[in-house]
Specification:
- Helices cover 9% and strands 36% of the residues.
- The strands form three sheets. Strands 2-1-3 form a three-stranded antiparallel β-sheet.
């Protein structure tokens, strides 16, 4: 996994929601750390999926593609990861337009 500098933009998505609800971005790693520190007490904390925003999305025939592979990490030391054989691929309906 690549290391990210403080200059990257990150997309933050709530793990428990769908349809684009609750998604926001932060402009750098310092802002990301501040947002995560502001989370309430552990009982009320929400899980998020955090990923860098890519300037050049993955395209197939001019349409954005979303690849999702699922893994279960059961141990960090020693590292033990189970990868699900089935993955999800989603294709956008409209062609990608970087100017939109």
């Amino acid at each position: 996994m690549a290391r990210h500098s403080a200059a990257h933009t990150f997309v933050i998505k709530p793990a428990s929601r769908g349809e684009g609800k609750g998604i926001f971005t932060v402009d750098n790693g310092h802002e990301l750390a501040r947002v995560l520190r502001q989370q309430p007490a552990r009982e009320a904390k929400q899980d998020f999926v955090i990923s860098p925003l890519h300037n050049t999305p993955l395209l197939v025939h001019g349409r954005k593609v979303d690849l999702r592979c699922f893994a279960l990490v059961t141990s960090m030391v020693p590292l033990r990861v189970f990868l699900l054989n089935d993955c999800l691929v989603r294709f956008a309906v409209d062609r990608y337009d970087a100017t939109a």
